[in-house]
Design goal:
It is a single chain. The chain is α/β, with parallel strands linked by helices. 37% of the residues lie in helices and 21% in strands. The protein has helices spanning 3-7, 17-38, 56-64, 120-130, 153-168, 179-185, 204-223, 229-238; strands at residues 46-50, 69-74, 88-92, 105-111, 131-144, 189-198, 249-257.
Amino acid sequence: MTSGTSTGSLTRGQLSPLDQLRLFESKYDPTTQSIIESLAPRPTWHCLELGAGAGSMARWLAERASHGSVLAIDTDPRHLDVSRAPNLSVRRADIADEEFGDAAYDLILARAVLEHLEQPQEVLGRAVRWLAPRGWLVVQDFYYLPSEHAASPVSKALVAGYVRRMEAQGADLGWARHLPSALGRAGLTDIGSSVTPAGPGQSAADDALIGTRLRQEGHTLVESGLVTRGQLTAFLDALGKPEGRDMTTLLVSAWGRRPGARSTGGPRPEEAV
């Protein structure tokens, strides 16, 4: 990324939040899809996605569960297009207090959601209740590495500023470290986990996402005094260059299965409340 690109990083209103969502999906969908494929999904599965964003995973799940159903929820569902799949439905909801049918879903996906909640373990426990016996819960959240260990003084300032802003908004940036044990405490079995590094230079998708995010939000870091304009510009100038490469976060993925025998009775309600 050139310095000409970063010059526009403090220009407000040039990018839609949808740009960031789509870049996020392009970076992380392959990892999420690979995990779900390893669970041997069936065409008849009923699936629930908590925090569906721009809907790429909800649409992918609707294709995999072609004879089942997918319910995608988000606090802002305007980017979720139900016309893309006949077995996809959408609901505006906040999972902090929303309830769904007990034992109603074969797969529940929560990506980059629980870390933003005040009581993630409580919500995790409720999600387990919504799982059918032998159903799978897949959770992915970010663990932020210490900013003082960043690769350069500019990176230290930018990462520290971003982390402080996220924490001020209520995010628990250490929660993801406990995901595998949290699934165990919630009563799941067959627990697996993986870690995916993220940060400047980790991939072209990382650089595109970070650049877009800072062009969209960087001015708030400057205005709040967390970083200087010069630090933000220097960080963006280094994107795509060897000296700008760093590992700032880890996507922690964990999955587990609700114990018990799968019911052989009639069909479960797709959107029971």
